[in-house]
Amino acid sequence: MADRSIQPEIKDISNIHIPDFQEHQLDNGIPVYEVNMGTQEILKMEIIFHAGRPFEHQKLVARTTSALLREGTKKRKGSEIHEMVDFYGGTLSVPVNLDTSNIVLYSLTKHFEKLLGVLSEILLEPAFPEEELEIFKKNNKQRLQVDLTKNDVVAYRAVTENIFSSAHPYGYNSHAGTYDDLSRKELLHHFDRNFHAGNCKIVISGKTSPKVINLLNEYIGKTLVKKEAVKSQVIEMFPTAEKVKIHLPDTLQTAIRLGCKLFNRHHEDYNDFYILNTLLGGYFGSRLMSTIREEKGYTYNIFSALDPMHFDGYFYVGTEVGNEFVKPTLEAIYGEFDKLKKEPIKKEELKMVQNYLMGFFLTNLDGAFNVAELVKISKTEDLPKDFFKNMVNRVQSITAEELMMLSQKYLNEEKMWEVVVGV
Hints:
By secondary structure, the chain is of the alpha+beta class. The chain has 2 domains: about 20-220, CATH 3.30.830.10; about 245-420, Cytochrome Bc1 Complex, Chain A, domain 1, CATH 3.30.830. It is built from 15 helices and 11 strands. The strands form 2 sheets. It has a 6-stranded mixed β-sheet with strand order 1-2-6-3-5-4, with helices on both faces. The chain has a 5-stranded mixed β-sheet with strand order 7-11-8-10-9, with helices on both faces. A hairpin with a 4-residue loop joins strand 9 (about 300-310) and strand 10 (about 315-320). Helix 3 (about 110-125) packs parallel to helix 8 (about 210-220), helix 10 packs antiparallel against helix 11 and helix 11 (about 325-340) crosses helix 15.
């Protein structure tokens, strides 16, 4: 019998194996990435189109087109589609992304063909009913009206718009008039330009088989037309950082967001900054949490994030504090920047961050669907084949001195947009 009074030995994670995947090509040229793992008779399929904001001809048309894809075809009403998916125990979703428009289907293996037939119909003959578009516009304008009373939402909108500018696909914000300008004609135009075989990738995971791949070819590879991919509408902009104060009456707390434009996953400093961000505010034991939440008690939650997109990326810090703690919180955040720039972190703290990240990577490789998510990121963003292996190696090998030099390079107050929203 094990002695439960004795703590188990803590062992380092020395090696992480990234499972292989198979690559296929449908008749129309669509690449299919297959992650064949697991014992349960269930499949996840994600169809990815490069049809997000960088590829739209009108603001919000990408998001609206995706949102209304499931709301009817020339043969079926939206309610019929939802009922059929439910009847066969599946789920069909269209998550919102900045760069891509994705369609995610979960299905029991035995019902995959039936649901794939419905999905194929959606891709070939979407209806975009006028009445559904009007409901979408009305609901989103109402939601926007509520959101604009929340200081954290206003702060997030302001910091991203200032970092990228309101003319940038990653920077513009929605307004009531933006929704009013949408029409069924524009949705059809966006769909026709972007939802085709020349602009598509598929990731299939779970308990797959040759039959599953053949069904994909039958319902999508032989039906979806291939066209030339639309070029992105991203224009590089470099606004000068400023401090912005937005007055929002009757708020008990003040929202703080500060950040700057950085880079995507292809940048040479991405892996190192990913580690630095984790140390600063990317997990519960981070510097910002330890100092500003636990030691000073200014806030319940504070975090930092590195948000990479296909064409760019940004870093930001976010928190909500009592109105009387705004100034000391900002000083404390910049104080943590300065410490990282001037003092190499201690061996024990670096080891804690390394262990946390290695455990996090292991979690992300637990099961077919998690592995498929890594495959999707890699293939959608055209990352090198050894990208994730290199990240694991970098977590294990980075030094305190390298993190200090990286902090000196990027964590500079004068380069940070500072947005404060409150009374």
